[in-house]
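Chain A, query sequence.
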Amino acid sequence: MEHLGEIIIRDSLPESTVIWRYFSLDKFLYLILHKELYLSKIMTLDDKKEGSRPPEFKLLNLYVPIGGVSNKYKASREALKSKQVRDNQFLVSASNTFVNCWSMNKSESFALWCIYTDKNYGIAVKSTIGKLKESIKSNSHSINISRVFYEPDFTNKFSIDTIVKRKSEFYRFEEEVRLYISQSDNDSLQISVDIELLITEIYFSPFMKSNTKIAVKEWLSTKSESLSKKVKNSEIELRNI
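Chain A, predicted structure.
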């Protein structure tokens, strides 16, 4: 019997919240064929701050007065040891954390089409927080679903929240939601999902050529007639496409 770990929706996210995930064509085909969501190790994401060791504490955090004014800035062994322990805990947690990223924009994002797809071969899947949770079929780990918070200096904090739920404010436009699993020692991680339940709509990239749309929709109809009926063209209208 398959084991289903606990699935927790955090930050008071309504299950009705609309979410999007943008795929290159090959990754979309993988989702349909294997019925799995692929989770990336957070230390492999593009943003160098994610999963990296936080910056050194300020001197006043690393050094404490010992014995008088002349010794004011002698290193405290206790403070240095505490810092080393916390650094190690952070790095272990980061190396064992996997994420699957979505956007909770209310509509398509032209920027995300350009960044996360191959443009001419891009596909976006539309779903909701509730359907994402409900579609997960089996997993031996506890799963969390959380929004991302954008801060200018988020790496000064030591916690699982720092690793997963905090991101540089430069990425605020993504309005990201993450499904994440911690304490896994795998090199890669996949979660089985019911794609019929997960997917509410499938959007073709605004850059996609007509012959590509026809081929993809015909292929999809051979795998799932119901999913092929959920296909839509992007609502973004471009010239010379």
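Confidence is low (pLDDT under 50) at residues 56-73. The two ends are 50 Å apart (CA to CA).
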